[in-house]
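User: My collaborator sent over this chain with a note saying "see what the structure looks like." That's all I know about it. Can you take a look?
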Amino acid sequence: MKTQKQINLEKKNLWKFVKRQLPNDWDKFDIEGNYDALLNFSENKREIYDKIIQQFPKKKEEKPIDYPKQQLQEMEITIQELEIEKMNKFSEPNKEIEEYYKPIEEVIEQMKMGLCHLAFIRGRAGTGKSENIGRYLGKYFNPEDIIQITDVSEAFLYELFYKNNNKIFWLKDIDKLLTETRSLLVLKTACETKSERLITNYNYSHQKNLPKAFIFTGKLIFDYNEITNITNRESFEALISRGEFVNLNFSFEEMCDIMKKICDTNDIKLQVTNWLIENYKFVGFNQFNLRTQYRAFKWYEYAKIKNYDWKEYIKNKLQHNKTQTQQTLYTFIGNKTIKTTELKKILIRAGVVNTLRTAERRIQEYIELGELYKVSDNIRDFYVSLNPILNNAIGKLKEIVER
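Assistant: Without extra context I'll predict from the sequence alone. Here is the result:
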């Protein structure tokens, strides 16, 4: 957790950044209300820049950030082609498992047939979404025709599309591109339903070696978990309406079935998986996925080598398997339940937020993202907790009361 001295230093440097961006209007920007102590300095700086663009429209007319050549090269390195060895051979999975991912295959097959050039594939992390996108891309396309993108700025998007035109772009977990107004404008033209999709570079005049416009013929697949902080909802929904939408949404029972089928005839893996299912309360629904299952297999192996009780070892690992946000919140409330009014006060005293309104909004975001758990919504001021076991306890208590 940051000390108050670190927080004050970051705010001081962010003030300098705001003054450079808004030399005449810097005093109109609320740095205190937009600072997030749970983010690092670079993340705060990026968030604040985005909010400046939204709050001060004239800022959009200014020359975009001119990235140094070295930084552009580093960004280009992150735009990697899929690993050829993984894509050259399409492996047939268990037929019963494949039925769960059939919607992904269908939309990629439509791309191959020229019936679709845009797809949004959404699903919780750790459900096999990205793995199966890669498998089916390997089945229907050549590896050299596929570009995998995990991080790219809106300023680099035009150049990326131009230099790799007519290819399939697999964009993974790039929430910023789908929430940034400028990048949405480029994506909307790239994803038009017209026969000719004309993209212009009027926002990228500093890229003098590129044409002013070109016809884009590429195909795009957006692979993401959840999109938050959408500032331009209308543009975002307009973008989604241009393509196919696949929502890979599995229930708890379906996730259990997939996990069991993955084990096939391996008795040890099946034993570990059955234990995970029976004790999923130690995981929490958001972490109950294939990634957790894979880690549990490795924890089992380690426990056997060290002569530990593997069940107790895995249980202990799961209870401490918290996200960065949960780890920060743990320092404030531990595993106990707490009133939201009390948590608001704690967040303000710790310097995480500055107002009660911001604290209330932040807590609601934590709940929606699964960082906190709502224990009860039957009373005006409900309780929250980091411990998912409490949800089961409250549920059982309600059943007893209802009887």
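A starting point for your reply to your collaborator: Residues 252-319 form one domain.
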